[in-house]
Amino acid sequence: MRFFTRNIVFINRVIIGMSIFITLGTLVLTAQFFKKQQEVEASKIKILEELRHEEKKRIKIWADAVSQIASLEPGQSLDPCVLEILKSNKSIPAIWLGSNKELKAYRNIDSLEVKLKNKIEKFEKNKLESLELINLKQSLDSIQTTLNLKFQTDSFLMLQIYSMKDSIPIEVQSAIKDKDGNIVMDKSGKPITETTIDYVYYNDSYVIKEVDRLYEDSKDFTESLQYYPVIILLVTSSIFLVAYLAFDFSQKSQKNKLWAGIAKETAHQIGTPLSSLMGWVEYLKNKNIKIETINEIEKDTNRLQQIADRFSKIGSAPVLKSVNIIPVLDKTMDYVKKRASKNIKFSFEFDEYEKDLKINLSSELFSWVIENLLKNSIDSLQSSGFIKVRLKNKHNGRYIIDVIDNGKGISSYDFKKIFDPGYTSKKRGWGLGLSLCQRIISEYHQGKIFVLKSTSFKETIIRIILKQ
After folding, report:
1. CA 365, CA 468: separation in Å to the nearest integer?
2. d(Cα 354, Cα 401) in Å, to the nearest integer?
3. I want to staple 345 with a disulfide (CB 3.0 to 4.6 A). Which of 34, 319, 386, 427 is the partner?
4. Which of 225, 256, 286 is the last residue in one of the domains?
């Protein structure tokens, strides 16, 4: 535990560094992954398009074979190559419709039918006769019978046609028949033929559909991965934030301990000679010395006692009491006014009905804040000008105390910096006055102190907001 306490700054820096490294590494790797994934997806799309292009060629050849077989004259033999082409289509769903939209043939409509045909073909190639082969053939017959029955209904046929992706027109030459169904002959005894346009409707093969499905699944998975970098970034950012807050807390804790130690030591160092001085004041009262001189010395010792009390309270949590704020502000202004140039005009503004206003305060510390602000205003004015303290009620349980002057002002860039320990614009300043003010107001009184606005040699307002 002592190791962590002593090395808290180093540990926090290591954690912050690791968090930044992990975050940047994750983002870089994720960017590379998605770049590679996009290339893979583009390749998949290209392959799918090539497969579709090849299938389109195959189905056109198959449609030409259908046209040839449909255009056979009576007694004419079929070319074996055409028959092989017709048999070669084992995966592309196709429907052949006549010129009057009547169903002439279909192929590979049911995916289960296609799978059973492929299995049966494998068995037959290996010349394996088994009970499983018999069962497969029976299942295939059952599916084909069911399909035949379904295709007898127009609704099922139209549903299948609508599901098809494209169609190919084919020319079919067929003999003209009379009303009795007999073929009409010409004078030479040859059948009279006519040319009609049939259509072969087709869709992607089941192979392409499966590849397409796998591609869509892969795409969905990749899209879901897009959220992981955000999650990782949030987690690492949370780690970074926790480390930063821990580091900030440790720094503030160290500062608070330093403040408390310095304040207590200062109060102790002042207290030792102060006790002796107070004893000397009592001793001088018994001597024949002018009472005015003794009173002045006593005022200074009381002032030193007040400063010691203030430092003592800075070093420990002060007790807040319900105090009438008007006399506190008035007394502090009166003290500073007596020690300021006569060319500086002081004024105190407040509503008459607020004269008995009570706020929870540590009178000594709050008076120290106002005193510091007034002294800063005097330094800003240098020799002449005005200083105004204004008390306002915001009617929401909060009260505003404005310290206003028309001195040289504060640049907007320094509005927040002036409250940092060590920051000063004075040649001999320590830069502790306003940082003490902020500590007293924000930490001890749970209020706020800030520069509201500043215009050089016109108006500079430092505002304090306190809860009732």
Report:
1. 17
2. 13
3. 386
4. 225
How many residues are listed for the chain in this entry?
468
pTM: 0.49
CA 83, CA 349: separation in Å to the nearest integer? Answer: 110
Specify burial of residue 389 (Cβ count, 10 A radius: 0-12, 13-18, 19+): buried
* pLDDT-based confidence at residue 158 (cuts at 50, 70, 90): confident
**Nearest alpha carbon to residue 444 among 308, 294, 257, 316:** 316
Each residue's pLDDT tens digit, 103-147: 787 787 766 555 656 665 666 666 556 666 666 667 767 766 776
End-to-end CA distance of the chain: 42
- The percent of residues above 90 in pLDDT, for the chain, comes to 11
Domain end position, chosen among 225, 247, 282:
225
Residues in Cβ contact with 158 at an 8 Å cutoff, skipping those fewer than 6 apart: none
The DSSP-derived string for 290-314 is -HHHHHHHHHHHHHHHHHHHHHHHH
Q: Write the DSSP string, 348-406.
A: EE--GGGTT-EEEE-HHHHHHHHHHHHHHHHHHHTTSEEEEEEEEE-SSSEEEEEEEE-
With bands split at pLDDT 50, 70 and 90, how would you rate the model's confidence at 346? Answer: very high
CA distance linking residue 299 with residue 305, whole number of Å: 10
Do residues 370 and 389 touch, judged by C-beta distance below 8 A?
yes
